Amino acid sequence: MRNAFADEVRKLATEDQRVVLLSGDIGNRLFDGLRGDNPAQFMNCGVAEANMMGVAAGMALCGLRPVVYTITPFTTTRCYEQIRVDVAYHEAPVIIVGTGAGLAYAELGATHHSLEDLAILRCLPGMQVFAPTDANDLRGTLRAAIKSDRPTYIRIGKKGEKPYFTEVPEVAIGKFRVLKPGARIALLVAGTLIHEAAAAAEAITAQTGITCELVSAACIKPLDEAYLADAARRFEVLVTVEEHGVTGGLGAAVTEFVSGQPYRPLIVRIGTPDAFMHDLGTQEWARTQFGLDAEGIAKKVLTAIKAPN
Amino acid sequence: MDGGILAESQVETLRHAARELRLRTIANSSKTGTPHLGSCLSCMDLLVFLYWQVLKIDPANPRAPTRDRFILSKGHAAPALFQVLAEKGFYPRSWLDNYGENGSIFAEHPPAPSHLAGIEAATGSLGHGLPLGLGMALASRINKLDYNVYAVLSDGECNEGSNWEAALLAAAQKVSNLTIFIDYNKWQATGRSNEVLGLAPLADKWRAFGWRTEEIDGHDFTAMARVLAEGKGDERPKAVIAHTVKGKGVSFMEDDNNWHYRIPTEEEVRKSAQELGLEVVS
């Protein structure tokens, strides 16, 4: 995804002179294309993320459209005060990109994991929050974010994510995307777990005969309230799937909204627990530890629907 | 201001404006219960100098892309800035009548820029103004617009690490159109700024970070003019360490840190007016 990010930003910078990429001393050679084409539109801000975020906001207030890029914890928790004050409070159209989100850096330890970012970004007034499904979805999201002129947070993967979209989709801000219609159970998926969730949906169908609706919930804020209001009525079970803590992320956002609806579907929130991960391994392994692989997701859903309400 | 030399009449104009605005700020503090008076008085001369002599800004067109930007990074001195902006015509002085009332835009810190003409940054949380200003200064290059960015920081504010991150980037990028004034009044909220943290030697620190750094008397308009003129053509960002007196202009407030939070009584406002050689304004 990071290669697609670099490529799309390169294109955007050529199309739109306002686009500037600020990097926190990361992406060795990754941005050589952009730097070659438009050197004035790239700046390595060093390992100084608080300043980088303030600089981005200052640029945005002068008409530019800065895109801030580094590993997720360093572009979110590290400089949250600057995001809150300089970006959100000033309504500065900065696009904040966290690479290697979730457990993509599982083997680097919890310093590099990001399982809280959706929670803390979505509670900032006016902040748009996205967890794109794959590289093409990311390209579409970047374009929609720049067009929106609003503060935006986008969490992305690292590299080698399995593609889902064969071409760049049109990204509508505030809209979920139904990938496969179904009945009784809807799986709402944020980010790159889409393939795991799709396989889990098939496993659930095989065992129960229930066809699951598969939904990309890549736009976490603004939340697709129209879809959810309808889904709360139509489905018996809403399942949220995210590589993020169950506290505060997509699952929480869905639960908060549905709690105000006149219907009471069972909501199953699938994510990581209230714990740091101390054992290291690959992302794939880490996902299995938290039940975020297809088998784990299917098991949680099946257990939940069998349990007496 | 010709070549960095102010005519005596210009100096007298600045002194008069600063006295007037000091008294208005003091009276406003008393009327509205707004604190940080000592901090306001220590930087009032810097504000007056910048707004009267330096900043290329047009109150009738406050968002002109080519305008100079000024950021009061020590946002708690906003009561001083609000008086300055009214005097310069960004809004009528009558707007300040509801200062501190429920629903007013005027309180202790600058509001978001979209909510008040003349404000470039909603400071108040310390350590934000310099990174924001650096971004604005860098934007001038990318946008190919010729303007300067100025910021006033407090000495206590230099506790914040974000300033030093910004100092490093500004030096690396040779951001010559960025100038900061540090209002070095030797106090922060609860103690001497050289004792709370190891701030001194402050000028040496900025020099070591690659900034053109000068030290001046922060109440001397001629020194301000000279130091800015001398810095022209230097490709480095500029730091002016302005030695100031907290509570400057009123003898019983000067260098007394109680006035970081204390609110003057009506009698103290009257005494302040006497010392400033002015009539109390309503």
Can you describe what's shown?
The complex is a heterodimer of chains A (309) and B (282). Chain A is α/β, with parallel strands linked by helices. Chain A has 12 helices and 12 strands. In chain A, the strands form 2 sheets. In chain A, strands 2-1-3-4-6-5-10 form a 7-stranded mixed β-sheet, sandwiched between helices. A 5-stranded mixed β-sheet of chain A has the order 7-9-8-11-12, with helices on both faces. In chain A, helix 1 runs parallel beside helix 7 (135-148), helix 3 runs parallel beside helix 5 (80-89) and helix 8 (194-208) packs across helix 12 (294-306). The longest helix of chain A is centred in the middle third of the chain and has 15 residues, at 194-208. Chain A is globular and about 60 Å long. The termini of chain A are far apart. By secondary structure, chain B is an alpha/beta fold. Chain B has 9 helices and 7 strands; from the N terminus they run ααβααβαβββααβαβα. The longest helix of chain B is centred in the first third of the chain and has 25 residues, at 8-32. The mean pLDDT of chain B is 96. The interface between A and B is medium-sized, with 31 and 32 residues.
